[in-house]
Design brief:
The complex is a heterodimer of chains A (379) and B (612).
Chain A: H1 22-25, H2 30-50, H3 55-77, H4 80-104, E1 106-108, E2 111-116, E3 121-122, H5 124-141, H6 149-167, H7 172-188, H8 193-213, H9 216-226, H10 235-249, H11 260-263, H12 275-308, H13 312-336, H14 355-372
Antiparallel strand pairs in A: 1-2, 2-3
Chain B: H1 2-44, H2 46-57, E1 58-63, E2 70-71, E3 77-89, H3 97-105, H4 112-124, E4 131-134, H5 139-147, E5 155-164, H6 172-175, E6 178-180, H7 183-188, E7 199-201, H8 204-208, H9 210-214, E8 218-224, E9 230-237, E10 244-247, H10 251-261, E11 266-272, E12 277-284, H11 290-293, H12 298-306, H13 315-318, H14 328-338, E13 347-349, E14 352-354, E15 361-363, E16 371-373, H15 375-380, H16 384-405, H17 427-434, H18 440-447, H19 457-468, E17 479-483, E18 489-491, H20 504-519, E19 536-542, E20 565-572, E21 579-585, H21 591-607
Chain lengths: 379, 612
């Protein structure tokens, strides 16, 4: 049932004629690395400003970046076929850990997310951002695409299980992203547009029905979630201050270290989830557009790598990881600019914080692995 | 299906490519949407959000000016500003005020009284105003509060300047005091100039010179963070401190006057004749004005307000007493000036006076009479019958007009608020107020300074000064010099309102008679006769209630509070008058015995200063 001859799985690469460069030897994709390093450097600069120039914050973030980039390079050394083989086991271990979190997890910010593994505290929900696209790619790549309905149902269940477990922690933001990761993988696998339309319509129909069944206080919560500005002392305060920060930045911004909204503490969570507002305030529209271009470059490079991949598993995985990265970006910026409800999602590679940073860099390690382990076909 | 796998592979590759392209387009369009949103926020709504951002961070803070100081004529400080710590609560920033206060009570002394006053102030202030709960914190209380400060959001220990009156009770009525601005005052004052000030002059000099003492508020534009903490000052306009006031008051005289009053209540006014300056202005009993600065407790205030001695009442400018015989020199002068009587012309005094055809006996204080009396004897021995006759001859209209020239029946317009005008009765006054005609008998009573006739101690002192000055009237004034913040000074205006020219002989004659009051064998104030300088004076006794006909009047049996008020007016030295004094001793009995020695002590101190 394997689509590739067994020999293809042997790890002997076809050697190019010219001597191997260091980057190629390390299985690093230069454009991607350049983009990521630029982003990380920019992130440190903004963090220096947003964190009130505390070197402590900066040092911690640099250590995390170091860990992340090392993990990225390490992952890039493995052949995609290894990743493919690990996929179901990773998924299984992940599910077990999610259950463990629910049973013995540590409390943090009112939700059980952390699993103490002795040395490191670990957030199992985070790894599903990787392992869910992997397992779906693994599951669907085994058979002909577009997938049959029965396989789709199984893939749907594979997605739903971790999403529900994560939502139960409760960590709605991550559940949403993990769900999106699964949905993206399914979309890239080529499920029919009719099905997509059907699912979309049924979800749209489910909304009013759920609304009808809800209690008044629940409806109120949903309304606040959808329109945070109706609650100016609660969630709305974040959005109002964030919009003021962005709007007052103008075209050219107030200048690095000169953002009043952030430095005078009007902007909450300015070095974590709301760091995009700091960038907008200090660097203005020009800076934001440059940043979005950089993100776009990375995403498009990811999609290019996916399109160049030589097997279905790699394609779906590379595409899904690139698009999950985009979803991160959009959910965060949409929230900060008031387009989307407030969901605790960091700005990828820039927000202060460890777990998501490492996850994202590992995903780019996978992309690099996929790109640099291609069997170069003679032209 | 290995054979189809290659075909599938190609198909799948193409399928994926189409999905990847769709995704790429989706990504680009969403990012464009985001860019559009950014354009809307950062370009289209830029001004709006810039305003909000400035609103956020820039706050205007008023800088209250320092209140001007008050000095006596010798540079002794009478009112100053002392640093003090107060505990203030900003309701807006305090989640649970009652719980906070209860918790604070564990740390420092807070009485129910404090809480009650706080709650009262709270109703008058805005939510974001800082309202004092306790003032004049002790040092250890400040220390305990700063240690526990993190427990109390919205609670601040503020260093403020608190008004202080070092002379306390001795200057209470004259200076008045400052207190918290009340709602009625809020309507009058310029709110913005008082935006940093919580105190205002309530009465006395503090009130009448409020606009000068207060100064001009300064402003500070500050940058604040989200917690309202001031981070830096953007712009600073310094406040202009209030002007310092130098008074004519001589604190020595003030203190001596108070001491000389002994157990008695009453008032003393002393005026520097050449300037009209008020040298002493005493109202006894006094009160401690410092109590009012921090907000007096209801109990303490009730005790003051309900006291039978009325300590809050400023007798010197609001106490309206019958002037009694102290008006006799003025009425004598009227008689001479209108030519109805000669200085040496004699009348017989049998001890009583009767209007022609009437039974009613108007009694003299000397039951058996003064026998033959001329004007000099009538002033020296204070014969009432002589003045009944003189008053009848002059008639109420001429009496009224002449006495008005000396300032009776009208406020002296001294630079203090709340002064009363006394009462100089007239036909018109009685018709308007009482809707009754004037009776001839009432004229007689006016002639000895009784009946409807009322005057304040300051009025008496001012009239005495005018008499000593032979008709040269200078409006009494408390403040002599205004010292501006830039060091320049400005003298208070000397306002002159002279009487019309009188015959100089008449002045000399009346003043000579007044001199004999002190120096003569039978003078009613002969006890204060002094070798050092010559005093001209006149005693007076004001009846607190009228004695019924043919009723024995026994001082000892009349309850102390119904005893006559003792009065004395005087000026000295006779040859070159420097100081005029009016003394009213409530329930003091005869003026010569009680009131005159008080006046003498004041004049001694003022005129013999070099000797002491």
């Amino acid at each position: 049932m394997r689509e590739m001859p067994r020999s293809a799985l042997s790890f002997q690469e076809s050697q190019p004629a010219r001597p191997l460069g260091l980057l190629a030897w390390l299985h690093i994709d230069l454009p991607l690395l350049t983009g990521l390093l630029l982003l990380a450097f920019l992130g440190l600069a903004v963090l220096y400003s947003a964190g009130d120039q505390q070197m402590v914050l900066l040092n911690k973030q640099m250590i995390r970046l170091g860990v992340g980039f090392t993990a990225m390079i390490l992952i890039a050394q493995f052949h995609p076929q290894h990743l493919r083989r690990w996929s179901p086991w990773l998924y299984l271990v992940g599910i077990l850990m999610l259950m463990a979190v629910i049973l013995f997890g540590e409390q943090g910010k009112g939700a059980q997310r952390w699993l103490d593994l002795g040395i490191v505290r670990f957030q199992p929900s985070e790894m599903f951002k990787l392992s869910l696209p992997m397992v779906i790619a693994w599951f669907l790549a085994d058979h002909r695409l577009p997938p049959q309905l029965s396989r789709l149902l199984v893939a749907g269940l594979l997605t739903l299980l971790p999403v529900l477990l994560i939502a139960k922690q409760p960590d709605l933001g991550t559940a949403l992203l993990v769900g999106a990761a699964g949905a993206i993988a399914l979309f890239l696998a080529g499920i029919s547009w009719y099905l997509i339309a059907a699912v979309g319509l049924s979800l749209a129909a489910l909304g009013p029905a759920a609304w009808y069944l809800m209690h008044e206080y629940q409806r109120q919560r949903v309304l606040t979630f959808l329109n945070p500005e109706s609650d100016p002392l609660g969630t709305g305060y974040h959005i109002i201050q964030s919009k003021i920060a962005i709007g007052s930045g103008g075209v050219s911004g107030k200048g690095w270290l000169n953002g009043t909204q952030s430095h005078l503490e009007f902007l909450p969570e300015r070095h974590t989830d709301f760091i995009f507002a700091v960038i907008s305030e200090e660097f203005g529209l020009v800076g934001v557009l440059a940043l979005l271009c950089l993100y776009l470059f990375i995403i498009l490079r990811g999609l290019y790598i996916a399109s160049q991949a030589q097997d279905t598993f790699s394609r779906i995985l590379a595409g899904a990881l690139s698009l999950v990265f985009f979803v991160y970006l959009f959910v965060n910026t949409g929230m900060v600019t008031g387009l989307l409800p407030v969901v605790g999602v960091p700005l990828p590679l820039i927000s202060y914080g460890g777990t998501s940073l490492v996850t994202i860099l590992i995903s780019f390690g996978i992309l690099m692995s996929i790109h640099t382990h291609r069997k170069l076909l003679p032209t | 299906m290995p054979q189809s796998s290659i075909k599938d592979h190609l198909f799948e590759s193409q399928l994926f490519l189409s999905r990847a392209i769709v995704s790429g387009i989706l990504v680009i369009s969403v990012l464009l949407l985001l860019a559009g949103r950014m354009f809307y926020l950062q370009v289209a709504s830029h001004d709006h959000f810039t305003t909000l951002s400035k609103d956020n961070r820039v706050k205007l803070q008023p800088l209250p000016p320092t209140r001007g100081l008050i000095y006596d004529r010798n540079g002794l400080i009478l009112a100053q500003n002392l640093p003090a710590y107060s505990l203030e609560i900003t309701p807006e920033k305090t989640p649970d005020i009652d719980a906070t206060i209860q918790a604070l009570r564990q740390i420092i002394t807070i009485t129910d009284e404090h809480i009650q006053r706080f709650q009262q102030l709270r109703t008058q202030h805005r939510r974001f105003d800082s309202i004092p709960l306790r003032v004049r914190l002790q040092d250890d209380e400040v220390a305990r509060l700063s240690v526990n400060r993190h427990r109390f959001p919205g609670v601040d220990v503020k260093a403020t300047l608190l008004r202080d009156y070092p002379q306390a009770m001795q200057t209470a009525h004259l200076l008045g005091y400052v207190g918290r601005i009340n709602e009625r005052e809020l309507d009058i004052i310029d709110i913005s100039n008082y935006s940093g000030t919580s105190y205002i002059g309530k009465n006395g000099v503090e009130n009448s010179y409020e606009s000068l003492l207060h100064g001009q508020v300064g402003l500070q534009q500050v940058e604040v963070n989200a917690k309202g903490r001031v981070l830096r000052v953007l712009e600073n306009r310094s406040p202009k401190p209030g002007d310092n006031l130098h008074l004519f008051l001589d604190m020595d005289l003030q203190r001596i006057a108070l001491e000389a009053m002994g157990e008695f209540n009453g008032a003393v006014a002393a005026i520097e004749i050449k300037s009209g300056g008020v040298l002493a202005l005493v109202s006894k009993p006094g009160y401690n004005p410092n109590l009012f600065v921090e907000g007096i407790s209801t109990e303490a205030y009730a005790a003051l307000k309900n006291s039978i001695d009325k300590p809050l009442f400023n007798r010197a400018i609001r106490g309206q007493y019958p002037p009694g015989s102290t008006v006799k020199p003025f009425i004598g002068l009227a008689g001479l000036e209108y030519g109805v009587v000669g200085y040496h012309q004699e009348t017989y005094c049998p001890g009583y006076y009767q209007l022609p055809g009437k039974e009613h006996k108007y009694r003299d204080w000397k039951k058996w009479g003064h026998a033959e009396v001329d004007m000099k004897k009538a002033i020296v021995e204070s014969c009432d019958v002589y003045y009944y006759e003189l008053a009848r001859t002059l008639g109420i209209d001429r009496l009224h007009d002449f006495l008005q020239g000396f300032g009776f029946g009208q406020p002296t317009r001294v630079d203090l608020t709340g002064e009363l005008s006394g009462l100089l009765p007239s036909r018109e006054w009685k018709r308007e107020r009482r809707r009754e005609p004037w009776y001839p008998g009432e004229t007689l009573i006016v002639g000895i300074g009784q009946g409807y006739f009322l005057s304040t101690p300051l009025q008496l002192a001012a009239a005495t000064a005018t008499l000593a000055n032979q008709g040269h009237h200078i409006r009494p004034r408390v403040v002599s010099l205004i010292e501006k913040g830039d060091g320049s000074t400005q003298e208070s205006p000397k306002i002159i309102d002279d009487l019309k020219q009188l015959d100089p002989i008449h002045w000399t004659q009346v003043i000579d008679a007044m001199t004999q009051v002190v120096e003569g064998m039978h003078g009613t104030a002969r006890s204060i006769h002094s070798e050092n300088y010559r005093i001209a004076g006149k005693t007076g006794t004001a009846q607190v209630f009228s004695i019924k006909q043919d009723e024995e009047y026994d001082e000892e049996t009349v309850a102390k509070r119904r005893r006559d008020h003792a009065l004395f007016i005087a000026f000295a030295p006779v040859e070159d008058p420097q100081i005029a004094v009016a003394v009213v001793v409530e329930n003091g009995g005869h003026g010569g015995a009680v009131a005159a020695p008080i006046a003498q002590k004041i004049m001694d101190r003022f005129l013999l200063r070099d000797d002491t």
